[in-house]
Design brief:
alpha+beta, 5-stranded mixed sheet, 28 helices, 22 strands, AlkB_hom8_N, methyltransferase activity, DNA/RNA_pol_sf, Reverse transcriptase domain-containing protein
Length: 741
């Protein structure tokens, strides 16, 4: 069956501009007239490299419709065409997206459908239809252009300059006064516009206005070099782990009796409807706005493609194409390692990944490592840090003890994952073979290139790593490291994605188990192709004994000594060897003071108190209360006063009452405690046990104030002091979870 494209012309003569637009196109194709003579049918004589028939569109008055010459409703289909001059963009997008069966039929040979041909045909048709109805406009903006600058102000500015050149002092004085009044009026109008966005619950446009007024976090317009040789070098640098992968990639089909995952049209429609229309399009060029606006029309064809991909355990090649955007890790990058590779993949593939991810999360076994805190519900960085500190503080409450904390750094952890090893581990976790083969195909034979602006490197194919920027990648990495567990009961390994901390609880100066644990971790990394960066790996030793005995010997990894430091920033929180929080508090107060400048700038522009309070809560309070439940209980009086001084300063600027840091900490402690009570798989759930009366929780045994003021003992105390009316729900949930199954 051949595929034709119809161009509908209405009352068009050779003198029309559109006819002149089509005249040059007709020279390169063979055209025949329909019987009624009012439509032109174009038969393409060549194919594009992807196998899609070539076609041309006049953007002004041509409406594009696919059809089969064997279709009995051909004539009526043509008569139902509309003049594109009278259609808005949405209708012009909706109308073509109707019959998709022809694409599947064209890609089917016998009983097998070529998933690559099918998918690329659909995407090419969507992109061509988008091009036919899209009007491109070029808008020039300047870095020093003020957001309130409008047409009236430009005219007044032009009038002032004219008066200045005329040497008329009176006219110049009047024009200056008019310009001053015009600027004041324009600023007032812009302020009202920002406040209107706040009143209309449009936070995105409100924050755009606030950022424009205060110049908060301006975008760095300095582009990365567009030298092709540098981009090629960067692309091969990102593929360095692929060169070390000696495993042969083989394509195997899942067993016929294995039931593949099947997605419903309802799920696909929901995923398309939730697309962020402002996200950048991937290498396929299909924008998220179209996928979201035409979700109802595109649900059927993409449901068919997704289920066909899962049934064949094969991901279309156009879905796996990756455009790497190098993001500098520092303000002044000096080497290739200073650029973080962020993968830009097709938006429709991200929707597909989200649907698969939801299924993977539902299939997680209960034996999964509870100390992996990333990408799991009811887990956060606060849980990871507080769990690590609680194990240390509890151990230090005993006599003749100290603790060593090793903060491990990996080199390009995501890029070094071997798909075949991941496939084996997924099988150990109980995932069916069909889904495992689909994930294997997703991670192998990935075309990749590096893009900077409009310049691209050459394309290479990778078979190693989980690309950063994909939806599935962080979750797959956490599953890849699920078997990285301590071999000694006195040690704990805390993981949050690739941020890893090894905690050794040492008694009587015997650190043998801790040193064996570190060597076991190094061996595990070597077996799993993960490269330890010893130069960035740091160690903190927490020892409060008066007589510390001999000097602590350093840890060696792969023959290199690990540097011992007095402070380390782990998951956004500064941890020191004396477990004091002055360093952490000083860092937070410094950041908050820097952001007070922007709050004062907004105040000078006379924004309302509601907008100022919103800015304070989102920009300043969020900094002051970062992981506040972890460290605030053990803060010194001086540190608490320093935090509260920032709040008082912001209160004077906004002229509104603001919540004290202590009250925020109390609310967050209670909220975290309630979340842990509801989650029996949380590693800290065992710390909350009810007394026989069923009305209060058992207090944790503490000997020092350091442990008593830490999060978990303090959370138990807050739960017990909470009024019964507020605590009854948590008690009933805890009782139901504690009951035997």
């Amino acid at each position: 069956m051949l595929l034709y494209y119809v161009y509908s012309f209405h009352n068009m003569t050779k003198q029309d501009q559109c006819w002149q637009c089509q005249k040059s196109m007709i020279l390169s194709i063979f055209c025949t007239l329909c019987k009624n003579g009012s439509h032109i049918r174009f038969t393409p004589v060549s194919k594009k490299p992807s196998g899609i028939w070539a076609y041309w569109i006049c953007k002004e008055c041509v409406s594009l419709f696919p059809f089969s010459i064997l279709d009995d409703e051909f004539a009526s289909y043509l008569m139902d065409s509309h003049d594109s001059k009278h259609l808005d963009i949405d209708n012009m997008l909706f109308n073509p997206f109707e019959d998709w069966s022809m694409f599947a039929s064209q890609a089917t040979l016998g009983s097998h459908t070529d998933i690559d041909t099918y998918t690329s045909s659909v995407l090419d048709y969507i992109n061509t239809t988008i091009d036919s109805v899209t009007t491109w406009k070029q808008i020039t903006t300047y870095p020093n252009q003020k957001p309130w600058m409008n047409k009236e102000v430009r005219l007044l500015l032009k009038a002032r300059n004219t008066a200045f050149r005329s040497d008329d002092a009176m006219a110049y004085s009047v024009s200056r006064a008019n310009l001053r009044r015009g600027i004041i009026k324009a600023k007032h109008c812009y302020k009202l516009k920002v406040e209107e966005h706040f009143s209309n619950s449009d936070p995105r446009r409100m924050w755009q206005g606030i950022q424009a007024i205060s110049d908060y976090k301006p975008r760095n317009s300095t582009p990365i070099t567009t030298d092709v040789s540098f981009l090629n070098e960067l692309n091969h640098f990102y593929a360095c782990f692929d060169r070390d992968n000696r495993e042969t990639q083989t394509t195997t089909r899942p067993p016929a009796d294995n039931q593949p995952l099947s997605l419903t049209s309802t799920d696909v429609h929901a995923a398309l409807s939730r697309i962020n229309a402002r996200k950048a399009a991937g290498p396929d060029g299909t924008p998220g706005r179209v996928l979201r606006a035409c979700a109802e029309q595109l649900t059927g064809v993409f449901t068919d493609i997704f289920n066909l991909s899962l049934a064949q355990a094969a991901v279309p090649a156009c879905f796996k194409a990756t455009s790497i955007v190098p993001v500098p890790k520092h303000s002044s990058p000096t080497g290739l390692n200073d650029y973080r590779p962020v993968a830009l993949t097709p938006i429709i593939m991200k929707c597909f990944e989200r649907l698969v991810l939801a299924h993977l999360k539902n299939c997680l076994p209960p034996t999964l490592d509870p100390f992996q805190f990333a990408y799991r519900s009811n887990r956060s960085t606060e849980d990871a840090v507080s769990t690590a500190l609680h194990s240390v503080l509890t151990h230090l409450d005993n006599n003749n003890t100290y603790a060593r904390m090793l903060f491990v750094d990996f080199s390009s952890a995501f890029n070094s994952v071997i798909p075949s090893k991941l496939n084996t581990k997924l099988g150990d976790l109980g995932f069916n073979s069909s889904l495992r083969h689909w994930i294997m195909d997703f991670l192998t034979n990935r075309p990749q290139y590096v893009r900077s602006g409009h310049t691209c490197s050459t394309t290479i194919t990778l078979n190693t790593g989980v690309p950063q920027g994909c939806v599935l990648s962080p979750f797959l990495y956490s599953l890849f490291t699920h078997d990285c567990r301590p071999v000694h009961g006195s040690n704990t390994i805390i993981k949050f994605a690739d941020d890893t901390a090894v905690i050794g609880l040492i008694s009587n100066n015997d650190d043998t188990a801790y040193r064996e644990e570190v060597q076991h971790l190094a061996a595990w990394c070597a077996d799993n192709n993960l490269l330890l960066n010893t130069s960035k790996t740091k160690e903190i030793i927490v020892d409060f004994r008066r007589e510390r005995g001999s000097t602590h010997n350093p840890i060696h990894i792969n023959g290199m000594a690990v540097e011992r430091v007095s402070s380390f920033k782990f998951l956004g929180t500064h941890i020191t060897e004396d477990l004091s929080w002055s360093t952490n508090t000083s860092s937070l107060v410094k950041k908050a003071h820097q952001r007070l400048f922007f709050l004062r700038t907004l105040k000078r522009h006379h924004l309302s108190s509601a907008v100022l309070m919103n800015f304070y809560r989102c920009v300043i309070e969020s900094i002051l209360t970062s992981s506040v439940s972890v460290w605030y209980g053990n803060c010194s009086v001086a540190d608490r006063k320093a935090l509260q001084r920032v709040v008082k300063t912001a209160q004077r600027i906004t002229r509104c009452p603001l919540t004290a840091i202590e009250d925020v900490q109390r609310k967050r402690c209670l909220r975290r405690a309630h979340g842990i009570l509801k989650d029996s798989s949380h590693p800290a759930h065992r710390l909350f046990t009810l007394l026989p009366s069923g009305r209060r929780f058992r207090s944790l045994q503490t000997r020092t104030s350091r442990l008593r003021n830490s999060f978990f003992p303090r959370a138990v105390s807050l739960l017990n002091s909470t009024p019964r009316t507020l605590n009854s729900v948590s008690l009933s949930l805890s009782l139901s979870l504690s009951a035997p199954c």
